[in-house]
Amino acid sequence: MKIRPLGIEGAWEVSPRQHGDPRGLFLEWYRFDRLAEAVGHPLRLAQANLSVSARDVVRGIHFADVPPGQAKYVTCVRGAVLDVVVDLRVGSPTFGRWESVRLDDADRRAVYLAEGLGHGVCALTGDATLSYLCSATYNPSGERVVHPLDEELGIEWPPEVPLLSARDAAAPTLALALAAGVLPEYATCRDYAAALGAGAHSGLV
Question: Is the pLDDT of residue 79 over 80?
Fold first, then answer.
């Protein structure tokens, strides 16, 4: 597989090599050793999720308090989505910037995003199905959201009228989240990643 860093620190695109013949195909969609080599520490697998979305559904922008945050390794096993990574880390050189990757069941790419980054998706097909590997279990008290249609972020979602959950539709803008002090700090996220790397080298992770 090929692992390429995105323009936002802590985010990578993973492109697997597919082996096909008349019977079908085979690929490695996740390799802990290859990912750890790129990221600097292994992904601690704590929870795996599936989400299924109707066409034009937008989910996000979701993130979790750091520590522990929630790193994610995301791939699309059916249909297609636009996967969006947003830098919500206060003090980051790319704070407020977003980047997108198309994930689908043809190229079968994946995206890894580190703790502290925001994540959103838009379903480009019906029954778009995502598989998530997560570094931490779901913790409602530490889960946060920024409005996906915030004009300051300016994310270019494909549908003219995105379909949002009630929670996402009521989410604060980036400016309001910043004022409320709920966004992760860049320095805290970097220190946390460094601790994970140190723990990996000492055999604690």
Answer: yes
Residues 6 or more apart whose Cβ sits within 8 Å of residue 10: 113, 114, 115, 116, 117, 189, 193
- Across the chain, the runs of DSSP E, i.e. the strands, are 2-5, 11-15, 19-21, 24-26, 47-53, 58-64, 72-78, 80-87, 98-104, 110-113, 117-123, 128-134, 143-145
pLDDT, position 155: 98
Find all residues with CB under 8 Å of 35, minimum gap 6, and list them.
3, 12, 14, 42, 43, 73, 112
| pLDDT recorded at residue 199 | 73
**Residue recorded with tokens 């989410």:** 171
The reported pTM is: 0.94
- Beta pairing class for 110-113 and 98-104: unpaired
Residue 26 has phi, psi (to 5 degrees) of -140, 145
- For 133-183, where are the alpha helices, taking DSSP H only? 166-169, 174-180
Q: Looking at residue 57, what DSSP letter applies?
A: B
Scanning the structure block, which residue is given the tokens 């994946």? 110
The pLDDT of residue 201? 60
Quote the tokens at residue 23: 């019977």
pLDDT band at 205 (very low <50, low <70, confident <90, very high): low
The model's confidence at residue 196, banded by pLDDT at 50, 70 and 90, is very high
Q: What is the separation of C-alpha 105 from the centre of its chain, rounded to a whole number of angstroms?
A: 18
- Is the pLDDT at 204 greater than 60? The verdict is no
Query: Which sequence positions are flagged as catalytic?
Result: 62, 132
